Structure formats: structure tokens, C-alpha cells
Amino acid sequence: MAIIMHGSWTLRVSAHNSAIAQRFVVSGAETGNGSHDASDGTAVHVTGRQWSVRMQHRPAGQSWQDSRPRIGYPWIAAGLLRFELRAGDDELVLGCSLPASSDDTIVYGNARAYPGSSLFNPGRNDLIVIDPPVAAHELCRRFPALYPVIEKLYPERLRRFPRPEPQDELRPLVLPTGLPAQAQGLLLHSQPAARVLAALASADDLDRAQAEAVAALATTVERSAGASTLGAGLGRLRRAELEALAELRDAGLRTAGEARPTSGLLLRIQHYQRSDVEMLGGPYSGSGERENLGFAITDEQGRYLFRLSREHGAPGVGRPDLILQSLGNGLTPTWESAPYSQVPNLQRIDLCIPNPSLQPKRLRPDHRVGQRGDELAAVERGLGGRAPANDADSHAAARPRLVSRTEGSWRGGLRV
Q1: For the chain, what is the HEC assignment?
Q2: pLDDT of residue 265
Q3: What's residue 210's pLDDT?
Q4: What is the pTM of this model?
Q5: How do residues 228-243 score in pLDDT, each as one tens digit?
Q6: Is residue 346 over pLDDT 50?
């Protein structure tokens, strides 16, 4: 299985089993493509908007075979943002690094599946999220404490019973917790990065070039306060209603059941621009403009990593709101998260996806990204701002509008 990468990274062999023939293969990049032997000191600087790396081994007398890649969690040390790709039982360890800068946002985490019978999504602490399908009347009948809340925030969902609107097929029901935001993620502050990092692409001595880039960027790190979550209609609810929600949520999470990793799952990341009502603290509608940023794929442990970069000098762009979607065959979304608000430069986002959203359209092993050229081509076609053709069904007019921005925008791995 190939791992999707974005932007410029230096790949370096950190460890390998010399008794086994091994290599890593870079595809779809602007520079660094090809097969690279896994030997001591092998280092390659790869550039490109979106590309893939595959780790392989060759048993005696056989052809090259794909290894099982595992994605490590990123960390920052000595001015470099690092993570590792490990193959098999640590037979090959590939270190991936780039000079840390404020122009980059890295999101990573685990994608897990949870029993669909759970009332609330167990992966969200900042908001109360009820994943589709949501039959509001039935929900309120089973849990009467929800009725005054949904009546205030989503009265249209009560009026539409029993047939949901097309945009509600994926849109979760989002309710506020009323709790203060917790510290989350890391914020980076650095000098402008575009010119500094451009020199890496043509450097003969990667170690020296990275050290010079780190010195020029002078990046500092602080922990994000995480104080800007969606209002989600909090100001419309009374304290008694928030307390009733808290009791329901506590009881629901205690009975949520075990969540299990989902491997080989294709994820799409979107930049979400809140509607005016949402900006004023109103309930989440999902009707704001969206921009497709790129794709990630989960490894055998359910881990993923995605990098997006801000265009240097783009005005008026702060920390982004992100939505993550799981995709089935044909890049058709089968589930989407509620927005993650004002994501800092390094942020762990663990996903919990209801089982029913995965089972019907789960990617088959032979359709995983990187297994066949046509799948990678489909991913490349989906990188644009417009939704893939499979999203444009008879309900296209009712779906949130996707836009492609050329100024002041975020793009997955755009800067190299």
C-alpha cells in the first residue's frame, strides 16, 4: 500500500535489515521520483503537491513486494518537524523531515470505527455530535431532553420528518457542550518560509541545507489555547438544557462500545468557511463554502497524516476550519466530521466513524490508494476545488458549494 504525501519532505533511511533486499519507491512527485535502495545514508528530497511513497522488500528468488507501512506520530526537534514510516516488523524505517514553519499545518491521528448504535460520536470532546442518519422525531421520542434543544437549533429537521433533505445525508447534528475549550495542538511562529525552503530542492548537502533553513526560519513553538470552537448555537440554550445534554452525553459515551482501527481508508480533507450565521454563534448548518485540500490514507493501525501549506504572502488567512470525510468507491463520501475549528500548526485529530458508514462502501483491498494507477489518477483528479463527478447527483443543488481559491487559500502540499 502506498502512503500519500504532500509538499516537500526529506526521506532518509534511519534503519534497515541488511539481510533483506529493500527499497522505497516515490511516485507522482515533481522531483525525487523513482526507486531508492534502502541502504545506510540514503536520503532523497522529494517535492510535489501530492505524491506517494511505497516501501518494498524482495524475498530471495521472488519479485518486489509491498511492505506493510505504519505511520508514526510527528514531533518537533531541533527546528525540524519529523515523523517515521516503518515497514513490517521495523525491517525498514524511513525518517521524514521538513523545517518547521508557521506556513504549514499538519493534522494526524487515528481513524476508528465505532458501533452505530451509539447515540453520540465518542471521538468529539469539544462538541456533541450525532452522526447520520438522524431521524429527529424518533430521537426526541427516545430522549425527550433533546426536544427543546433541537427545536431551538434545528427546527427544520423536525418539520421534515420522516424524509431527510439531501444535504442531511452526511451532515451531522452538532450541539454545544457549554464547556470551556481545552488546550490543544501546537502553534508555530517563524520567518517567511517560501524562499528559505526553495533552496532545499537543489541542495547537494541536505543536512547542511536543512540546518541553514532551520536557522533562517527561527521557529518558536507554543501550545494552542484552543479557545475558538464553533458556537453551535450555545447562546440560544438555557443552562438547564445544557445540563440535560451533559447527562445524556455522559450516559451515551459510557455505553459507546469499543472503537476499532480502520485500515486502508481513504480520507478527504476540506477547508470549511463558516456561514454568516455560524460566525455569529448560530447552529452548524454545513452550508458554508468548502475547498478540497487533498487526501490521506490510513495505515494498518488506522493512522493517517496530512500536510497543508499556506501560500506565502496570502492575506487574511488564519488558522483553518477543517472537515474530514471518509470516501468509498469512486471517491464518494460515506461520512463527514463536524468542523474542527481554528486548527493550529500541529494538531492531532482522532476520527470515530460509525460502522454503518464504512461497511457498505468501504474500499476493497484491491482498490486501496496506490495499488493501481487508475486509483491514484482518481485521487489526483479529486484534488481540484470542485467535488468529484460522483458527488454531483440529482441533489447537487442542495449540497454545500465547493469553491477553488487562488488567493488567500490553503492547499494540501502546495508550497515546496
Answers
A1: CCEEEECCEEEEEEEECCCCEEEEEEECCCECCEEEECCCCCEEEEECCEEEEEEEEECCCCCCEECCEEECCCEEECCEEEEEEEECCCCEEEEEEEECCCCEEEEEEEEEEECCCCCCCCCCCCEEEECCCCCHHHHHHHCHHHHHHHHHHCHHHHHCCCCCCHHHHCCCEEEECCCCCCCCCEEEECCCCHHHHHHHHHCCCHHHHHHHHHHHHCCEEEECCCCCCCCCCHHHCCHHHHHHHHHHHHHHHHCCCCCEECCCCEEEEEEEECCHHHHCCCCCCCCCEEEEEEEEECCCCCEEEEEEEECCCCCCCCCCEEEEEEECHHHCEEEECCCECCCCCEEECCEEEEHHHHCCCCCCHHHCCCCCHHHHHHHHHCCCCCCCHHHCCCCHHHCCCECCCCCCCEECCCCC
A2: 92
A3: 86
A4: 0.83
A5: 578 888 889 899 988 8
A6: yes
Q: pLDDT band at residue 117, thresholds of 50, 70 and 90?
A: low
pLDDT in tens, 205-231: 888 888 888 899 899 999 887 555 788
